[in-house]
Amino acid sequence: MSRLSKFLWRIFILGCIVFTGIIVAINLGWMGYMPSIRELENPTSDIASEVYAEDGTILGLYYIENRSPIEFEEISPNVINALIATEDARFYEHSGIDGKATLRVLLLLGRKGGGSTLTQQLAKNLFPRQKQNIFTLPIIKLKEWTMAVKLERNLTKQEILTLYLNTVPFGDNTYGIKNAASTFFSKLPSELEVDEAAVLIGMLKGNTIYNPRRNPERSRNRRNTVIDQMQKYKYLNAEEAKKYKDKELVLNYKRNTPSEGAAPYFRQVVEQEVKRWIKQYEKENGITYNIYRDGLKIHTTLNPLLQQYAEEAVTEHLSQLQIPFFNQANIKNGTVWEQSYAKNVLDQLLKSSDRYLRLKEQGLSEEEIIKDFNTAINLKVFSWDAPENEKDTLMSPMDSIKYMRSFLQTGFMAMDPYTGEIKAWVGGINHKFFKFDHVNIGTKRQVGSTIKPLLYCLAVDNGYSPCTMLHTNPQLFPGQKTAYDAGGSEYGSVPMSRALALSLNNASLYLLNMVGISPFVKFMKSSGISSPIDPVPSIALGVTDISVFEMLWSYTMFPNKGINTQPILITKIEDRHGNLLQSFAPIQKEIIDEHNAFKMVKMMQGVVDGGTAGRLRFRYGLTGDLAGKTGTTNNQSDAWYIGYSPQILAGAWVGCDDRFLRFRSTAQGQGASAALPIYALFMKKATNDPRTGISNKERFIAPDNFVNCQDLSIDDFYYHSDDGDIFKEEENIDIEGLNIPIEEWE
């Protein structure tokens, strides 16, 4: 053997030894971190937490990276075939490293494609490259080869494919085939057709350039390339390939963002509830869960059908009610903003806006900023009439603030009064433009006459009867020099049932004088109202600011036989593997006995059958047993209706965020006109659809040995307009003089 040959052999053997040494060193972690096989099998990728409705459908996700894992059996063969044909045709033949492909890359310098196998790509996805340069790249590649071999030795081919498809990034911050299928086609991965699978797999070459939403033509061409590959490797015949290539690119795009999808306000509140729970719950290793990374499965009480009908009811009513509201002279000509308190509100809104803060940071003077705010620019604003409720317009930022603040808002919630489960939640008219939630316990408005059933309930619990005669003359409270007339004295003495049906204010003040202010405040607190309550006479008329959430909570005792039930949003929380972490049940307590509760039901039926909520019957045609109460506050700033059937309790508030923006007439601004129709439309839709389980055939059942007084006819005691509607609702009163703190009484 020549000296050259010996030298070359020595170089070769030495090279093999060095190469082997490097591989061993890499595997042992001596040349940088090397994950264990356990880490490779169970990657710690951020996984989105999923929010489920009561029927198991996904309402939305909480995530930093939109990623949700699935099993191999849940993936369509079309996806698997497209992936292998395009990315690694010899996937089932190699053991992590494709020698032929690697040799081709070396000989052709990558001109005929790369040599990375799916397994190598998986290793790179699981443990992305950090800093790399021409010197570190060879070591990085060797690390990926080592990880690929370890994956192949410890996982089956199906497991590798599943892990790859669960971790690979698609466009629009979407990770994993499950979320990609849901986002771009609104399908499960098992339902994807060949062309749809080809679109998604085609994105792997470049999830921005081949994003079908952003670049449809490029995406279609890339899709057809994938289909060609599927034909080349015998996954499709020529006829099938042509059929799929000829199809138009059709998306059913539904991105899971906080403002899009079902029940965005509800999901917003659930998110905060889970964050509170997380602070008290730790993993076994002592670390708290992360709602955006740990893949929690959050099961809620929401009913998708009832949620849909609630959102439709809000849209149907408020889109029409907004028209006369905008047409009011002071809003149409803008003079409503010329009042001193309106100017103060406008100034606060301006200075808290992102635009103002940005201009301030740029060093602009106050005068320059005001000029900018009064200069017309192209803006996107909310509009009931525009597609997707979004309108492009030329408007100054100042005018846009006035315009957007002038929209009527709403808070609507429906729940099962027996279990406490919240079935529908609409916190506003459009979450994209109006993030503020008008249902949750932190959002409080004056409740008007919807407070009266609680006062009447306390009276009944203290021995009053629905037929007890109440005085409607003006009432004198300690601290007042003269009796206060809040309305209704023309009725004389009337039975309690009639007084509630007609919402007579003086009758409520009389009852408050009888039961006492302090006991009533205590009773309100025991019913689920945690809002601050000033002990003043006007609490009988609803001057207190209380949330929709609390009001429905307090009303649960009426249909639920005296049992007060706390509303709940979440039934259970599981970890990413489906292991139960905690289940939730409502807190219940008896407030009144079932006989007194049923007396309240009977009186509140009178509100519907012949009182201020009569239009539920003669205008909206609702049948079956219904009970409830309307509410209107001073100057029509707040309109309410809370009602219940034997199966469901629901309530609506309507008003503007700024209380000086209001209807100027009681006819349009009272609870029966502004809020009640949302409840009526919701109930009409719910009872007309047997899938909801809400029926108008159900009846309120009296308890055993129930004794009521003889109900008196109220036909002669309320006013009608020409169309048969309630003409006068004795609720819109001036509360000046009634807000005397108890500690100042003489």
Q: Could you give the distance between the termini? A: 122 Å
What's the multimeric state? single chain
Structural class: alpha+beta
Mean pLDDT comes to: 85
Q: What portion of residues belong to β-strands?
A: 5-15%
Count of helices? 28
Tally the beta strands.
21
Please compute the radius of gyration using only Cα atoms: 34 Å
| Cα shape | elongated
What about the largest sheet? 5 strands, mixed
Low-pLDDT residue spans: 105-113, 133-137, 711-737, 740-746
Strand order of the largest sheet: 2-1-6-16-17
- Overall helicity: 40-55%
What can you see in these coordinates?
The chain is α+β, with helices and mostly antiparallel strands. Strands 2-1-6-16-17 form a 5-stranded mixed sheet, covered by helices on one side. Strands 10-9-21-20-19 form a 5-stranded antiparallel sheet, sandwiched between helices. The protein has a 3-stranded mixed sheet with strand order 3-5-4, with helices on one face. Strand 9 and strand 10 form a beta hairpin. Helix 9 packs across helix 10 (216-232), helix 10 (216-232) runs antiparallel to helix 11 and helix 19 packs across helix 21 (505-515).
